[in-house]
Write a structure and sequence with these properties.
With about 160 residues, the chain is mainly α. It has helices spanning about 5-15, 30-50, 55-85, 90-115, 120-150. Bound molecules: fe (ii) ion (FE2).
């Protein structure tokens, strides 16, 4: 009979480790955005798995996961801002500023890592998770409510929400 050694169990645990789980509290109600936010959940978890990789793998695996995360955050924020422009969101500028700060912080952390400065990947992923998902749960939800309200009073059509 197949017997899992401690090492196998440890590896299994690392492959499936989750630091964030999709929750309705993150749902904006705008399908295209929620799909992208779910992808951010996936990428954050991949980054977490990468940072608990074996030391000899850490360098390559974490760099690659970080690269994917940065690319996707850029892509997603661009899409989100396009949408907020389309719906004439009154807090567009403030929202964009928050994105810019987030991107700047992520890039600075990536640079620190690349330069080999004192950097704790595990700690970084937790911080990143807090940044991104509190932004979604508070500020993205706010435009989600705005959209619902606009659709409800007939100022916005659901068609306009296709980015
Ligand atoms: Fe946002």
């Amino acid at each position: 009979m197949f017997d899992m050694t401690n090492n196998d169990q440890q590896e299994k645990k690392q492959e499936t480790a989750e630091i964030v789980v999709w929750d309705e509290k993150y749902a904006t109600g705008i399908e295209v955005i929620d799909v992208q936010h779910k992808k951010l959940v996936e990428l954050t978890n991949q980054l977490y798995v990468a940072c608990i990789a074996k030391p000899d793998m850490l360098q390559t695996v974490f760099k690659e996961a970080m690269h994917k995360m940065v690319e996707y955050v850029h892509f997603h924020f661009d899409d989100e801002i396009k949408l907020l422009k389309t719906i004439n969101y009154p807090q567009l500028n403030e929202h964009k500023k928050m994105h810019d700060i987030l991107i700047k912080d992520i890039l600075e952390a990536a640079k620190e890592y690349n330069e080999g400065k004192h950097f704790v990947p595990n700690h970084f992923v937790r911080t990143l998770k807090d940044w991104i998902f509190s932004h979604i749960a508070i500020h993205d939800k706010t435009y989600g409510f705005y959209v619902k309200e606009q659709i409800h009073n007939g100022s916005l059509s659901a068609q306009a929400l296709k980015v």
